[in-house]
Every structure is written in C-alpha cells, then in structure tokens.
Amino acid sequence: METVEQLVSFNHIIVQLNGGTPWGFTLKGGVEHGEPLIITKIEEGGKAEQCKKLRVGDELVNINGSALYGSRQEALILIKGSYRVLKITVRR
C-alpha cells in the first residue's frame, strides 16, 4: 500500500531563464478561475524550451523568490517585472 507521502509527492524544479522577454511559455488558471497556475504551452525555440526543464502541465509556485498565492494577475506582474533573468519554481 502506498503511503500518504508517495500519493502526494511532487518534484519541485527550479529554472532560470536568461536574456529577457519573451520567456516562451503560457500560463492558465489561477485562484480567479479556481485552478492552479499551470504552464499550458511552451513556445518552440523559446527560452522555456531551450532550458529543457519545463513541461506543459507544470504548476508555477514561485517567481524570483516570491511564493505565489495562486493569482494569475500576481504571476503576470512578477513575470513582466523580470528584466534580464526569470527564476521560477514549478511543481510537477
């Protein structure tokens, strides 16, 4: 039988994208929609694809050291405020 830890285990992946916008991924969801913030698209040839760490379906949980509380608007402000470097943590 699986333990609770095995049933709810997630991997947290820290990703650093460099060079400025566009970062090359699209988000969907947020508390406004009753859903987690999920990466729904990774642009071909974009910075998110080139890093080879992000996947469609990853949940965004931290941007530049700021924990997210699930608001898409909050995430977009933090992402747009990233000038040369975007450091994000996703839960898979």
TrEMBL record:
<dbReference type="InterPro" id="IPR036034">
    <property type="entry name" value="PDZ_sf"/>
</dbReference>
<keyword id="KW-0963">Cytoplasm</keyword>
<dbReference type="GO" id="GO:0007015">
    <property type="term" value="P:actin filament organization"/>
</dbReference>
<dbReference type="GO" id="GO:0016324">
    <property type="term" value="C:apical plasma membrane"/>
</dbReference>
<dbReference type="InterPro" id="IPR001478">
    <property type="entry name" value="PDZ"/>
</dbReference>
<protein>
    <submittedName>
        <fullName>Shroom family member 4</fullName>
    </submittedName>
</protein>
<dbReference type="GO" id="GO:0051015">
    <property type="term" value="F:actin filament binding"/>
</dbReference>
<keyword id="KW-0009">Actin-binding</keyword>
<keyword id="KW-0597">Phosphoprotein</keyword>
<dbReference type="GO" id="GO:0005912">
    <property type="term" value="C:adherens junction"/>
</dbReference>
<dbReference type="InterPro" id="IPR027685">
    <property type="entry name" value="Shroom_fam"/>
</dbReference>
<dbReference type="GO" id="GO:0030864">
    <property type="term" value="C:cortical actin cytoskeleton"/>
</dbReference>
<feature type="domain" description="PDZ">
    <location>
        <begin position="12"/>
        <end position="92"/>
    </location>
</feature>
<keyword id="KW-0206">Cytoskeleton</keyword>
<dbReference type="Pfam" id="PF00595">
    <property type="entry name" value="PDZ"/>
</dbReference>
<dbReference type="GO" id="GO:0043296">
    <property type="term" value="C:apical junction complex"/>
</dbReference>
<comment type="similarity">
    <text>Belongs to the shroom family.</text>
</comment>
<keyword id="KW-0217">Developmental protein</keyword>
